[in-house]
């Protein structure tokens, strides 16, 4: 701690920063920025949040060389300046403050926070060692924030978690004029979603690979405004950056320098059988039956005209479960097995009351997609086709059944 204070004194000398801000506004901005902080920073300053006051505006920023986050807040400032403070501690403190205006003052090696009868004093970090945040790339286009958040959430669920295979931990973002396609896969399932957007330049074409976790978090938390501006830059190998900005917030992430799989070749173009499922009823039944499925064992689905029978377990020393669910089925009777978690993830992502599963054979991938409610289609007939439920497809690999 003594060394940290020495660094800060050398960094700041006699500079002062002072402002007053609404507690809820400050807590929200700090919490949002803190989400991007690395859990195990490579150097101590990367655990910090940078507070910068310029005129009547406060910028709350974080950066770890891969992801940056910046929120802007209106304040009543007495002194402009900048200081770097421990980020997660600041987030915990601002979240716990009483509902009163917050007075913040930074001078030398300390930052003081006063709110009602509560007062905190924090050590600062050496701001001169903090890296400069990357500039926001040029705008590529604009998309409705709710459409973007839904699309990213539907696709990111299929991305891999193994960092040794970076090409599988990303979401492929493809731009083709006024349409955007997102795709992600972990080799056991593949999710693809298309939607309409408004490109900055007609005829724009691009394809990049974005870290899935970063993209999902940003899309989910940039919904306070009606639109999200998508920005792109590309440099040398591994130097590309994606920027996302909404109301008073912006984030950037370095793109993955990896080759994504040829996913369009994986998606079946025809089927020999299909089933239309009531999503809620089928999901509830699958969850109940899966309770007895040991780790790594499949959920057995036996499709016949008018119904599907779900089974799990089987041996005498295991639990067993069976449940029937009414479905619309077209084709010869089919028995197929799925990883229960992967199947339930897909059902949760379709966001429609009914879903369709297309099959080719018990040992080949099945494709899950949403079925549009005719009443909703009539009420919203002008909606772009790229935003309809059929624009989401979730391919799931079957599991070979025993015996």
From TrEMBL:
GO terms for cellular component: cytoplasm; DNA polymerase III complex. Gene3D superfamilies: DNA Polymerase III, subunit A, domain 2 (3.10.150.10). Confers DNA tethering and processivity to DNA polymerases and other proteins. Acts as a clamp, forming a ring around DNA (a reaction catalyzed by the clamp-loading complex) which diffuses in an ATP-independent manner freely and bidirectionally along dsDNA. Initially characterized for its ability to contact the catalytic subunit of DNA polymerase III (Pol III), a complex, multichain enzyme responsible for most of the replicative synthesis in bacteria; Pol III exhibits 3'-5' exonuclease proofreading activity. InterPro entries: DNA_clamp_sf, DNA_polIII_beta, DNA_polIII_beta_C, DNA_polIII_beta_cen, DNA_polIII_beta_N. Keywords: Cytoplasm, DNA replication, DNA-binding, DNA-directed DNA polymerase, Nucleotidyltransferase, Transferase. Residues 143-260 form the DNA polymerase III beta sliding clamp central domain. Residues 17-134 form the DNA polymerase III beta sliding clamp N-terminal domain. PANTHER family: BETA SLIDING CLAMP, DNA POLYMERASE III SUBUNIT BETA. SUPFAM superfamilies: DNA clamp. Forms a ring-shaped head-to-tail homodimer around DNA. One of its GO terms (biological process) is DNA strand elongation involved in DNA replication. This is Beta sliding clamp. It is found in: Cytoplasm. One of its GO terms (molecular function) is identical protein binding. Belongs to the beta sliding clamp family. Residues 265-376 form the DNA polymerase III beta sliding clamp C-terminal domain.
């Amino acid at each position: 701690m003594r060394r940290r204070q020495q660094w800060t004194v050398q960094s700041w000398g006699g500079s002062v920063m002072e402002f007053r801000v609404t507690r809820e506004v400050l807590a929200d901005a700090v919490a949002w920025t803190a989400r991007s902080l690395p859990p195990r920073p490579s150097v101590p300053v990367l655990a910090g949040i940078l507070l910068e006051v310029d005129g009547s505006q406060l910028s709350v920023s974080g950066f770890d060389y891969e992801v940056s986050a910046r929120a802007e807040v209106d304040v009543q400032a007495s002194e402009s300046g900048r200081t770097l403070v421990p980020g997660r501690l600041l987030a915990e403190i601002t979240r716990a403050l009483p509902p009163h205006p917050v007075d913040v003052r930074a001078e030398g090696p300390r930052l003081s926070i006063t709110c009602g009868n509560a007062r905190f004093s924090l050590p600062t970090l050496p701001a001169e060692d903090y890296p400069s945040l990357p500039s926001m790339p040029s705008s590529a286009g604009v998309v409705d924030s709710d459409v973007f958040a839904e699309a990213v959430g539907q696709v990111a669920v299929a991305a891999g978690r193994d960092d040794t295979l970076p090409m599988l931990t990303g979401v492929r973002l493809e731009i083709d004029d006024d349409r955007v396609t997102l795709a992600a896969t972990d080799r056991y399932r593949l999710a693809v979603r298309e939607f309409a957007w408004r490109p900055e330049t007609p005829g724009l074409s691009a394809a990049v690979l974005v870290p899935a976790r970063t993209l999902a978090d940003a899309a989910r938390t940039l919904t306070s405004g009606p639109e999200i501006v998508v920005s792109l830059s590309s440099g040398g190998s591994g130097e590309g950056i994606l920027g996302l900005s909404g109301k008073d917030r912006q984030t950037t992430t370095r793109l993955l320098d990896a080759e994504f799989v040829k996913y369009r070749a994986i998606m079946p173009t025809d089927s020999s059988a299909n089933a239309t499922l009531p999503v809620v009823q089928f999901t509830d039944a699958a969850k109940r039956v899966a309770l007895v499925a040991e780790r790594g064992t499949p959920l057995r689905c036996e499709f016949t005209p008018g119904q599907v029978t779900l089974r799990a377990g089987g041996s005498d020393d295991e639990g067993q479960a069976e449940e029937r669910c009414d479905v619309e089925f077209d084709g010869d009777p089919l028995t197929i097995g799925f990883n229960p978690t992967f199947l339930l993830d897909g059902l949760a992502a379709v966001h429609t009351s009914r879903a369709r599963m297309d099959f080719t054979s018990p040992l080949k991938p099945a494709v899950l997609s949403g079925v549009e409610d005719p009443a909703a289609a009539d009420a919203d007939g002008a909606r772009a086709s790229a935003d309809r439920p059929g624009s989401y497809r979730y391919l799931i690999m079957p599991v070979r059944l025993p015996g």
